[in-house]
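Can't paste images in this forum, so I'm doing it all in text. The chain is below; anyone willing to post the predicted structure tokens underneath?
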Amino acid sequence: MSTPDRLSTIQEERCKRADGGEPINTETRTAFDNNGGMCSNLTDFGTKLHGIESGDEVRIEVHEDGIWIEPGGNDE
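Text version of the structure:
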């Protein structure tokens, strides 16, 4: 997890108020082709909040209503 000094005061407050049903942060990204696989960049906010760095593994789950990106890789 990120240290609080890496997030703005507003972002910290949104994290505290989130009830699990609303997003803490919302940004629009453009999907692009990467050798046949569709990609989109993670948000700066998300990488800071979850402490994700280049080379880290993330778990991708595809659901009927969306795609979930979970930090920590595939270690279940």
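The chain has two helices and four strands. Strands lie at 32-34, 37-39, 58-63, 66-71.
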